[in-house]
Amino acid sequence: MIVMNPPFVRHHLIDNEKRKLYQRMVAGICPIKWSSDLWAYFLVKSCLHLNTGGKVGAILPWSFLQAEYAQDIRIWLSDNFKEIQLLGTQCRIF
Fold this sequence. Notes:
The protein is built from 4 helices and 2 strands. The chain has helices at residues 16-26, 38-47, 63-66, 71-80, and strands at residues 2-4, 56-58. It is globular, with a radius of gyration of 13 Å.
């Protein structure tokens, strides 16, 4: 099981060379758009470390549900996990 709170860094603040590296790390696994924020790379990469039947819990921004760039990630997760549970809040917890 992996429990994570990935970094919330906007895509325009990520150095292009680092973003190219992140893109190479997930190439052929999950199509992550160039406009994706940093949490997206962390989420996909962490899932690659799970054993079969493993679970991941992540604190994610609303962009996970709303952003167009996250659509491919949502599809990839639904294709690779038997069950996905979401808990959404509209208040600031942290």
